[in-house]
């Protein structure tokens, strides 16, 4: 069955050599080839301020670029979030996007902000994260904590789940063959819309 998929390319650097962009393209084209509907949000092309004041977070209006992202999330049945690991977490600019987007009135009620009150229920997600270290070290030694934080503290909190994860480790100096293998795997996930 065709699904509505939002691919969020969460790499802040517009340089086309960044592997995250190729992974986002692979997922999107795999999904389209299987008849799914796809929208894209490319963080590197979005203009919005960092959220500084609580009053701005609780204000009725959000910056124009953020209203567009909210509309795309509201439309989607499945979110695919792709980002590099920077100093152990998602890039600050991606966190800024979540802070701006998941605000009261859109992601949860104005008052009650407890787990289970998220307004974005009914959507599934996949996180794809690239990193320099081997995936086994990230899972075994660091307990994949940035993935857990995104999955539980952000997505789950607003009602999105279940969330699957893919770790693309050892990405620095990856060979062309390994690149192609990853792109094939990610395109297959897109075809299956998972
Ligand atoms: C600012 C910065 C911080 C980074 N921090 C980490 C890190 O904490 N752990 C890690 O394994 N790799 C780290 N890396 C390596 C990146 O994760 C890696 O270069 C990236 O995932 C490659 O994907 P890209 O081509 O899409 O940028 C860092 C790279 C940069 C530029």
TrEMBL record:
InterPro entries assigned to the protein according to its UniProt record, in alphabetical order: Flavodoxin_fold (IPR003680), Flavoprotein-like_sf (IPR029039), NAD(P)H_dehydrogenase_qn (IPR051545)
Pfam families documented for this protein: Flavodoxin_2
Domain Flavodoxin-like fold: 4-186
Keywords linked to the UniProt accession: Oxidoreductase
Family of this protein: Belongs to the NAD(P)H dehydrogenase (quinone) family.
Record flagged with keyword Oxidoreductase: yes
Protein name (Swiss-Prot/TrEMBL): Dehydrogenase
GO cellular component, one term: cytosol
Upper lineage: Bacteria, Pseudomonadati, Pseudomonadota, Alphaproteobacteria, Caulobacterales
Superkingdom of this protein's organism: Bacteria
Species for this entry: Brevundimonas subvibrioides
GO MF annotation list: NAD(P)H dehydrogenase (quinone) activity
């Amino acid at each position: 069955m065709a699904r509505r998929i939002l691919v969020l390319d969460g790499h802040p650097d517009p340089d086309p050599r960044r592997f995250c962009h190729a992974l986002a393209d692979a997922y999107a084209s795999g999904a389209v080839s299987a008849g799914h509907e796809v929208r894209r949000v490319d963080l590197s092309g979005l203009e919005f301020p960092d959220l500084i004041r609580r009053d701005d977070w609780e204000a009725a209006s959000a910056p124009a670029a953020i209203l567009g992202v909210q509309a795309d999330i509201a439309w989607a049945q499945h979110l695919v979030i792709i980002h590099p690991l920077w100093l152990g977490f998602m890039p600050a600019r991606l966190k800024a996007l979540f802070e701006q987007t998941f605000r009261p009135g859109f992601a949860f009620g104005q008052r009650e902000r407890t787990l289970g009150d998220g307004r974005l229920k009914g959507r599934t997600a996949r996180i794809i994260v690239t990193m320099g270290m081997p995936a086994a070290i990230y899972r075994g030694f660091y307990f994949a904590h940035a993935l857990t934080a995104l999955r539980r503290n952000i997505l789950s909190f607003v009602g999105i789940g279940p969330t699957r994860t893919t770790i693309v480790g050892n990405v620095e100096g990856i060979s062309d063959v390994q690149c192609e293998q990853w792109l094939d795997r990610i395109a297959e996930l897109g075809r299956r819309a998972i």
